[in-house]
Amino acid sequence: MSNYKFFYDNTINKYSKYLLTFSLLMIPLGLILGSFISNFFCLLAIITYLFLSFKNNLLYPWYNKAIYFLVFFFIYLLINSLLSVDYLYSFKKSIPYFLIIILPLSIYYVCNEFKPFYKMFLYLLTACLILVSAYGYFEYFFKMDIFLEPFSPYRDPHRLGMIFSGEQVVGSYIARLIPLYFALLIFNFDGNKKLPLVFIFLIISFEIVVYLSGERTSIFILIVSNLIFILLCKRWKKIRLAMLVITVITSTLFTLYDSNVKTRIIDHTISQMGLKNERIVIFSPIHESYFKTGLQLFELKPVFGHGVNTYRIQCSNDVLVPQGTCSSHPHNNYIQLLSETGIIGFLFLIAIFLYIFYSLIRHFFSILGSKRYLTDFQVCILAGYFSVLWPLMPSNNFFNSWITIMYFLPLGFLLLSFKHAKDEREKL
Q1: For residues 218 and 172, what is the distance between their CA atoms, to the nearest angstrom?
Q2: Is 163 helix (H, G, I), strand (E, B) or coil?
Q3: Quick one: which of 120, 109, 123 has its CA closest to 6?
Q4: Mean pLDDT within 207-232
Q5: Are 367 and 232 in contact (CB under 8 A)?
Q6: How far is CA 414 from the centre of its chain?
Q7: CA atoms of 121 and 382, how far apart (whole Å)
Q8: Predicted confidence band at 112 (pLDDT cuts at 50, 70, 90)?
Q9: pLDDT value at position 345?
Q10: Is 306 helix (H, G, I), strand (E, B) or coil?
Q11: What pTM did the predictor assign?
Q12: What is the pLDDT of residue 282?
């Protein structure tokens, strides 16, 4: 990396830029290794970027309406934590969440100043996706972990685990990163009429693992983001459609010939949703009870909620929610924000989702005209955000550090893309 002009600087700045670039490149690997490692690389990137920013007055990434919006949201989370039923417990989540805004700013800065970062990140992400997928296939076919030991009796036997941490988020990791991955492919192979064959093969193999992982939410995320890409992107439509068809056919064959896959994806879903019974439930009886408990908590404090990360505390309070079902979170982002941050916190998130929806709809109608509203790069990333923020599906803890990094990792790429598009329009 020392041959690039980005690193032609005084000694302190040069090594700070090395450290920032390295830590950002390591985040996809950190997400595989577990929350501690991913948090470490994020914190390293945040501290390094802040040092460079204040030392060299590099504040231009902050001049963005989306960043202003997020800053107001995070300030509200801090105020909400102060008013919480357990403010110390709430601050443990809201303060790190406030700091994570620096992650997309650091990506914005490095991508703007050091263009080879796009290709480096693409190849590092490719290696990480290959690692996760290869281990997923290993687990699926051999039914044992990396230490050649049988699965723990405490884990779901129908879901795949990460190679080192054992966390059963293989499908989530791939499905949430595929839209960013495809955006980076579009950026790096902009002059190619066809997507290189090796990447076609890799993406198909990645997406099959999502199905085999048994994570139904991840399957939904993958399908929705793929359909948006096929509908709204200009380039590689036929290739992407063909890849999706091959993935669906292959996944169908696994379902037909493997009873475990059929049990988890088909039979278990039908049973949980009560589709064979008179009473149909939302996703599953346990999910429905979490939702009801969250809405009961919201009714008690509709404006400000009970405080960030307090669902797990309040749901066990028999006085507040008699016969309530308890968990660490209500398994839906919007219900979690309603119960913990009230209608104010909820409005922040629904505003983000509606803006994404508006942007995609506006782009759809712009296709009928002479000029497209969004680039294919932007469509890919927005498709990913639209699918993970879809209100009517189960979700992880909104304030979980692993999932928060997943939310904010593509944002720096997206904001810089909007900035470049704006600059191009101003030149005309």
Answers
A1: 5
A2: coil
A3: 109
A4: 93
A5: yes
A6: 13
A7: 19
A8: very high
A9: 94
A10: coil
A11: 0.92
A12: 65
